[in-house]
């Protein structure tokens, strides 16, 4: 039997995702028309002998209650939300719920970060892990040397795939192979986390009875139940035949900013084209809008037949898209109204916002630039014939003059 755990974090994480995380927990923000965390959940559903999926986080229970019951019904896989009373770090969070997780007597535990976008080759990882042995296998990918430093960099044995060296976000270049935030472990991982935690307790005791703290200032602030998977487990256990790597050649991205969510929404739409094309809009029939490329339209959205939509557009529940509107590379959230002949390109339009006639909401489309995607927060009004370019607009603002390269607070 296998269980899967998805780390969803909490309200104090995901700050770079503002303003989109101001009213909605980041894991529930829709990519390709589905909450971010649906994508790893759907991937887990394909694991043979999967008994249970746990979401671990420190958001309030009620923020996930509705989601968890509806996704469990929809996918017919039991999904449970386990709430931490405070952040315990990526390994500490897992350890905190070891009893619940071990209730299922799993032979293997998948651990997934919720803010990564990839094809989640979980069955392949399980197979590779079984052939390597060891305590865990990490999904890795080769990236450009310039971008590697934002991630955990690692070195593995090219023949045995053993993890030889691991450094979290190093200042100087170590390797272009990085940690994708997707792991499979045996239950021995709990013993490893327990080890780090008791070491911390011993140090704390030492500190109380000696001047040890002055010698080890770096260890001063971490409580014994706060354990990070990367720095505290992978780094010290690299080169000890405990961890192995499985390299993917598929797509992989990390979703820290709104701009990256737009890119990842497009990657998931492209995946739907291969795996579930019925979820995508098709432009056939004279009553429908012109569709190009991969587009998702919620069944409750109303799209005028003269609108032109795509590529990479996703339109959420109850949105109303008027005559002659042009939408491309965008995410349109629930209850948005886009009036006649408006244009939205490289942009995310927040819940209940409204865009006036002949207005333009646009950006360059550079996903890594701070203002490369225009973001309108919740309930923003763009009046008729107003142009908003490469800008971020916070919730509840009314735009009656055009702006470019601005953050409207
Ligand atoms: N429940 C819970 N509790 N979740 C947490 C906590 C916690 O205390 N701390 C972090 N997380 C979740 C985050 O929501 C995220 O899904 C995941 O754990 C990792 O978050 P961070 O520990 O903040 O690390 P990161 O995202 O900057 O980097 C990690 O992931 C990269 C891949 O995306 C590292 O493991 C990198 O090495 C890796 O490249």
Description:
- It is a single chain.
- This protein is of the alpha/beta class.
- The chain is built from nine helices and 31 strands.
- The protein has helices spanning 38-45, 61-75, 89-96, 98-102, 122-132, 188-209, 212-215, 229-237, 258-275, and strands spanning 2-9, 30-31, 34-35, 50-57, 79-83, 108-113, 116-118, 136-142, 152-156, 163-168, 177-185, 243-247, 252-254, 290-291, 295-297, 302-303, 308-309, 313-315, 320-321, 326-332, 337-338, 343-349, 354-355, 360-362, 374-376, 381-382, 387-389, 392-393, 398-399, 403-404, 407-408.
- It binds guanosine-5'-diphosphate-alpha-D-mannose (GDD).
Query: How does the major sheet shape up?
Result: 12 strands, parallel
Radius of gyration, in Å, reads 23 Å
Principal-axes shape call: globular
β-strand amount: 25-35%
The multimeric state of the shown protein is single chain
- Secondary structure: helix percent: 10-25%
* Spatial separation of the terminal alpha carbons: 50 Å
Sheet/helix structural class: alpha/beta
The overall average pLDDT, rounded, is 93
As residue ranges, the low-confidence spans are none
Q: How many strand segments?
A: 31
Q: Which hetero compounds are present in the coordinates?
A: guanosine-5'-diphosphate-alpha-D-mannose
Give the count of helical stretches: 9
Give a short summary of the structure.
24% of the residues lie in helices and 29% in strands. The protein has 409 residues and is α/β, with parallel strands linked by helices. Strands 14, 15, 17, 18, 20, 22, 24, 25, 27, 28, 30 and 31 form a 12-stranded parallel sheet that branches.
């Amino acid at each position: 039997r296998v269980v899967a755990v998805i780390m969803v974090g909490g309200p104090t994480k995901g700050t770079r995702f503002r303003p989109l995380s101001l009213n909605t927990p980041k894991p529930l923000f829709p990519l390709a028309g589905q909450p971010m965390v649906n994508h790893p959940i759907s991937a887990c559903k394909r694991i043979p002998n999967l008994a249970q999926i746990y979401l671990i986080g420190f958001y309030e229970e009620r923020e996930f209650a509705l989601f968890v019951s509806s996704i469990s019904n929809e996918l017919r896989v039991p999904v449970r939300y386990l709430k931490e009373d405070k952040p315990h770090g990526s390994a500490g969070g897992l350890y905190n719920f070891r009893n619940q997780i071990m209730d299922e007597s799993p032979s293997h535990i998948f651990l997934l970060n919720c803010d990564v976008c990839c094809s989640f080759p979980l069955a392949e990882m399980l197979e590779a892990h079984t052939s390597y042995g060891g305590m865990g296998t990490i999904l890795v990918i080769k990236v450009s040397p310039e971008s590697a430093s934002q991630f955990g960099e690692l070195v593995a044995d090219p023949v045995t795939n053993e993890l030889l060296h691991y450094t979290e976000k190093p200042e100087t270049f170590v390797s272009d192979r990085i940690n994708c935030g997707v792991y499979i472990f045996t239950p021995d991982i709990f013993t490893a986390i327990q080890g780090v935690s008791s070491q911390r307790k011993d140090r704390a005791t030492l500190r109380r009875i000696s001047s040890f703290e002055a010698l080890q200032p770096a260890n001063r602030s971490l409580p014994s139940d706060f354990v990070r998977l990367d720095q505290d487990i992978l780094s010290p256990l690299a080169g000890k035949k405990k961890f192995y790597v499985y390299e993917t050649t598929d797509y992989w991205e990390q979703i820290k900013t709104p701009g990256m969510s737009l890119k990842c929404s497009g990657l998931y739409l492209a995946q739907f084209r291969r795996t579930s094309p019925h979820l995508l809009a098709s432009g056939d029939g004279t009553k429908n809008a012109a569709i190009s490329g991969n587009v998702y339209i919620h069944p409750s959205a109303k799209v005028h037949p003269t609108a032109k939509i795509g590529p990479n557009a996703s339109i959420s529940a109850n949105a109303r898209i008027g005559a002659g509107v042009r939408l491309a590379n965008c995410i349109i959230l629930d209850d948005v109204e886009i009036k006649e002949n408006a244009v939205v390109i490289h942009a995310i339009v927040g819940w209940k916002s409204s865009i006036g006639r002949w207005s333009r909401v646009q950006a360059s489309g550079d996903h890594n630039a701070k203002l490369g995607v225009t973001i309108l927060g919740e309930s923003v009004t763009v009046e008729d014939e107003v142009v908003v370019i490469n800008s971020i607009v916070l919730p509840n603002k009314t735009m009656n003059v055009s702006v470019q390269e601005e953050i409207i607070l």
